[in-house]
Amino acid sequence: MKPNAPTWNGQPSHLWETSAETLDVGRLTLCVDPRLELLATVQWLSSYGSRFPLLTRLEFDYKADVRAHFDPYRDHQAVRHLNEMLDRPASPEAPPFAFAAPPEAMLYVRPDFTVAPAIHADAFLIGRTGGRSMLDTFIANLRAFYTTSEFPAFFENHRPTYRKILTRTAQKLGTRDEIARLEMFYGLQQGSYTILLMPLYHSVGFGPNLQADGVRHIFSILGPAGVTDGLPHFGSRAYFRHMQQHEFSHSFVNPLTASHWERGRAYVQGYNSLAEAQEVVNESVIRAVTTWFAYEDEGSTQGDAALRREIDRGFPMVAPLLTKLRIYAANRDRYPTLDAFYLELLRTFGERGKRLEGRDP
Questions:
Q1: Same domain, 228 and 279
Q2: How many CB atoms lie under 10 A from the CB of residue 283?
Q3: Which listed site, 119, 166, 247, 270, has its alpha carbon 20 to 30 Å from 224?
């Protein structure tokens, strides 16, 4: 078998043996996970979609099947409890149970609906659920919904659809080993790489990770960008490659920001909360990295276009960070990992502030 040939349903331990539909291509796993489909179904039945633009507005056969099978369960306790969680007043210290938090929480759920204990040490997730008891109640209600709605039969009946989605998506991967490229750039290897495709989500991306087997397993969660022949698709090859670079990069960059924060926080000022400041840093650094890749992949014209897009999206720090990344790339003998260079990236935020005040950095 060729090294990059696909193999079906090799269940990595970090998927908790969930009977997910998976397709392995080299070191990368493409996956439709029943836990996330269960979550997305309950979110679709709740007020989640009206509160957050995070569920797909595309129409396709699978979505119609979800509507037909699960619409009678709109008043289930799992749906009502999720609405209660969404009604909780949010604050910078306790943001809503939305965006990356719900699917990330589901990665800790085992097949018997017990929760891996590590989740209780994750302040990010516990803060967004409203506390441990709210999370435990939510998982218990999901288990009841799973049984009452006959979700296992629905998932099994749609395995051919999931397999078609995975097969078509695998064709977007190309021949270059993007995982090796990420690891070479960051100077760090991760335990595994999984793309979680969620047909009911909007074309957003999230990049969670979890610790298992003594290593970090990293994920890219992605919703569809369009529909072809009645099946959701996940963008062009270039778009799909960019999304994986971005979402996988979160599991490299976010821990670096956290580990260097004590020394680097003085350079990052003017934000409402620690979470906001670190989010700006993470997004800015990651977008600088993906812009660097755009220059490598497509040349100066497309690289310049990628840089302009990031600045237009409200990330002005991408330009000075890109300048620093050129120094990093030219001196890998001195900086074998991005970790060794990271404080210099944080210092860039302070340098920009001084320039805006008319002072030399």
A1: no
A2: 20
A3: 119
